[in-house]
Sequence to fold (160 residues):
Amino acid sequence: MLEFTEVQGFKRWWIALVVTLGLVVLFLVQEVTDFPLSIVPAHLIVPSLVTILLKSLRLEVIVDHEGISYRMFPLGKQMKRSWDEIRDVKVIPYVRKPSKQGLFFKINEEYGIIFRMGGTHGMLVTPKTGRKMFFGTQRPGELKTALEELAPKNIVTTTV
Fold:
């Protein structure tokens, strides 16, 4: 295996719908109350842009012989952790814990920084320095196999 690649897209259509409807209602209330709007019909453009942003969100994770690359597209640039920077990697079940909630990005004590758009398992990466990272996966078996083949044997402790 040369690399493991997983791309998870935004699948919670109801969140995009709620955000869009909320923005439409906000703009309609502003229009009814004679709140000044710009010449451009903002009550149509802003909700459309928010919906497009939510639908274009995706988590990209690549595991190869050099390390682990990840990106939350289109919000950030691709980041990479080489195998030299990593102390431990595990594939584990994801158990919801109290955290500073976010839609796709969370932080808690056990998992560190959580990048997750779906899946019941994930890859917990413990770096030699810095905060842990957890990447959700919908393909834990394939990820475990990839880690066993691509990562140095002294850092992989896979469990499913």
Q: What stands out?
A: Residues 1-154 form one domain.
